[in-house]
Structure formats: C-alpha cells, structure tokens
Design goal:
This protein is mainly α. The chain has a single domain, classed as TerB-like (Orthogonal Bundle), CATH 1.10.3680.10. It is built from 7 helices and no strands. The radius of gyration is 13 Å and the shape is globular.
Length: 129
C-alpha cells in the first residue's frame, strides 16, 4: 500500500474524529481507533501529537471537502483503507445512525468510492465484531 504524508494523515485523522463526533460521543475506544489509523501510516511519529493536531483541525472546521480532497488524490487501496477505518470508528459503539450513514455516503461520493464496496466493507466489519 502506498504511503500518506504526515499532513494527509493529520487531515484524514480529523475526518475520522469528525465521524466519531457525529453522535456527540467521542469515546476512548474511538480515540484508540484513530490512533491505530495514525500508527498504520506514521510508525515513527508521536501518535498523541498527531491526534491533538487532528482534534484541533476537526474543532475548527466543518468542511468535509478539505479532508476528502486529500483522499480523492490517492489510490483505490488507500481509499478502501480509509473507508474501512471510518466504518470501524462509526460501528465501534454498535449503532449506525442516519447521520453516520449519510456522512459515509457523502464521503464516498466526494472521493469517488463505489457505494457497493462501501457497503461490503461495513458488513464485513459488523460481521467480524
């Protein structure tokens, strides 16, 4: 899988945090899932520092486009990995509400990721819980 640069990882982490915050509960478990995403791309960096930067970005921006433009430029493999991480965060509390589903549809549309593949990833993760 190709790599994402640090700025991209920070931006995408902010999107993961945004997904976690939609239900207005940003749990420690969700935070750990975001850290897992960061570690999967930036093994040598300070995870907490990157998480803090991402949380600041998410607090100051409601514009999904900022984050999705980063993702859109990447390969299908990276897009798939990001969608998988987003679903992990969303289903971590065992419920998916309409706002979370809507967010995923919007993100998939903005990054040109097929809805069917998005649905398959979601089902796979739910079935493996």
């Amino acid at each position: 899988m190709n790599k994402l640069d640090k700025e991209s990882v920070i931006g995408i982490s902010a999107l993961l945090i945004h997904a976690a915050n939609i239900d207005e509960i940003y749990s420690d478990h969700e935070k750990d899932l975001v850290k897992d995403f960061i570690k999967s791309y930036l093994k040598d960096d300070d995870v907490n520092e990157i998480l803090n930067k991402a949380e600041k970005i998410e607090n100051n921006s409601n514009q999904l486009l900022n984050y999705t433009n980063i993702i859109k430029k990447n390969s299908m493999d990276i897009k798939k990995d990001i969608i998988e991480h987003l679903w992990k965060v969303i289903i971590s509390d065992n419920t998916v509400d309409q706002y979370e589903s809507n967010l995923m549809r919007r993100i998939c549309g903005l990054i040109y990721f097929p809805d069917t593949e998005c649905a398959e990833i979601k089902l796979k993760l739910i079935n493996n819980k």
